[in-house]
Amino acid sequence: QVQLVESGGGLVQPGGSLRLSCVASGSIISSNAMAWYRQAPGKERELVAGITSRGLTKYADSVKGRFTTSRDNGKNTVYLQMNSLKPEDTAVYYCGMYSGTTWDFRLVYWGKGTLVTVSS
């Protein structure tokens, strides 16, 4: 059974930074694309960033230039570095794993999420 566990969320002031981690167990993720989604209160879950098995990345327009996703296959972990955080970035952030090497495949596993709150 694959499990994804996110960590690194918390309370941060506007303009601050956080780094989220997603550790996978039960499967080696090196052949899988991974993604970060977020869901703010009262809103639908939205894609924040994705990374293919080869390291190709994509980002939502709202976070381009501020967020960076990366992966360490040796640690079975993906990261989301978030800089210049804004109050509108407040959400629960989820890690997801695709069933194949790119985001053309289906998202099949989700973590339980980590809360990021951006507030002064």
Compile the SSE list and pairings.
Blueprint lengths: L2 E5 L2 E3 L5 E8 L8 E6 L6 E6 L5 E3 L7 E6 L4 E6 L8 E8 L8 E4 L3 E5 L2
Parallel strand pairs: 2-11
Antiparallel strand pairs: 1-3, 3-8, 4-5, 4-9, 5-6, 7-8, 9-10, 9-11
Notes on the structure:
The protein has strands spanning 3-7, 10-12, 18-25, 34-39, 46-51, 57-59, 67-72, 77-82, 91-98, 107-110, 114-118. The chain is an all-beta fold and 120 residues long. The strands form 2 sheets. Strands 2, 4, 5, 6, 9, 10 and 11 form a 7-stranded mixed sheet that branches. A 4-stranded antiparallel sheet has the order 1-3-8-7, with no helix packed on it. The protein is globular and about 40 Å long.
β content, as a range? Answer: over 45%
Please count the helical segments: 0
Q: Would you tell me the overall average pLDDT?
A: 96
Biggest beta sheet summary? 7 strands, mixed
Rg computed from alpha carbons, rounded to a whole number of angstroms: 13 Å
Termini gap: 40 Å
Short description:
With 120 residues, this protein is an all-beta fold. The chain has strands spanning 3-7, 10-12, 18-25, 34-39, 46-51, 57-59, 67-72, 77-82, 91-98, 107-110, 114-118.
Keywords:
120 residues, mainly beta, seven-stranded mixed β-sheet, globular
